[in-house]
Amino acid sequence: MGGVCVGKSHSVLAEAMRVRASPAASQQDVAPDFADVPLETLGVHVPVLPGDVGLCGDLSATDVACLAGRYKAWLYVNTPDSPNFHRAELERAGIVIDVKMFPGPPTMPSEAQAAAVLDALDSLPRPLMMQCTSGMRVGAALLLWLAKRRGYSAMSAEQLATDISLKFYVDCVRCGPMREWLKTQLPAQDTLCAQTHADDLIFKQLYDPETSTFTYVLGCGATNEAVLIDPVLEHKDRDLRTINELGLQLRYVVNTHCHADHITSGGAIRKELPEVRTVIAEASGAKADVHVRDGDQVKFGKLALEAIATPGHTDGCITWLLQGAPSRVFTGDTLLIRGCGRTDFQLGNAGSLYDNVHSKIFTLPGETLVYPGHDYKGRNVSTVDEEKRFNTRLSESREGFIKFMSELNLPYPKQIDAAVPANMVCGTQD
Fold this sequence. Notes:
Elements: H1 9-21, H2 27-30, E1 53-56, H3 61-68, E2 73-76, H4 87-93, E3 96-99, H5 111-123, E4 128-131, H6 137-150, H7 154-163, H8 167-170, H9 176-184, E5 195-196, E6 201-208, E7 213-220, E8 225-229, H10 236-245, E9 249-254, H11 266-272, E10 277-281, E11 290-292, E12 297-300, E13 303-309, E14 318-322, E15 328-332, H12 350-361, E16 369-372, E17 382-383, H13 384-390, H14 398-406, H15 416-423
Parallel strand pairs: 1-4, 2-3, 2-4, 8-9, 9-10, 10-11, 15-16
Antiparallel strand pairs: 5-6, 6-7, 7-8, 12-13, 13-14, 14-15, 16-17
Helix pairs in contact: 3-4, 5-6, 6-7, 12-14
């Protein structure tokens, strides 16, 4: 698969070795041990995310000796008896060594082989080097690990692979079978399974294909109390059935803002389940049982959503933060995957949106998972770090962003005339 990654490393290393061996060379001349040799010269690709994992193909023993001191662990995904696996050099460096099979076309990794590599990536110390024959299969393994551990759909994984320039995805004409295999290992946007996390969170992402709207079920595993974020009226029965199947008791229906593209089911759910309370920002002016301001919390069992006021798409937008490992933010239309919501109605303000995203969302830890209100390209989740690096709209200057938003000339939302008045009274709020 693909060409060997090494390239022109040996002339550089040969000169480094010559200088090191010279009787005239002082300790200062050769220290640190080849640390000045660029990784790219050795055929190593270090994707900016996660940033602590290197990818390489076949290397000479000299190359490995040069690289080993820079890493705490080495994961080799070919057979251990390969002449290109230089165990002795790695052992001399004193780093952790692991060997797992991760085959490529025509034989794809089995479920057990893929799981073993993912487990190794979970446990091996960083910085880590991953090595195969060409550097391509290890790129696929790294992407699979990132996508599985973050709960990415196949299209979210493809977006990430493109943005971090994984060579097996963007620069390998022979890697098509591996790319297609990887897609089969990940769900589509609308087929995501419920997840139970170590922090007692039960989580389910739901999707409305008509409006490309995400709805989220969050439950506390310790108490079975739950909240429902941004539900769509037409899917009320689906959402309540899902909550029931997960063994949860709904306490709150929470909206990120007063929506213009669909009617919330909050009021209808409240009529059916009078104990449920509806929640929205006080600044929205919409009717609800609970109005929140910046810093307020909505507690369900041992978990809590924190309200972060992020006006801009509308004047009443709230981003909901759930602390954890990793933390999660539910951004509504304020921050989308590689984009953001429009700012030309409902007292929207591009400057406010830009300021709030940069000061309140982009300041969260980079690994924080970003769950948007919508996506139109099959993606389902991102991270703060990804959006800071790759969201082209919001990486503009503030002035450039405001100008860009003012020139979008988007069509009038199809449902706004019905949705906004209804959502101002929580759909069918008494």
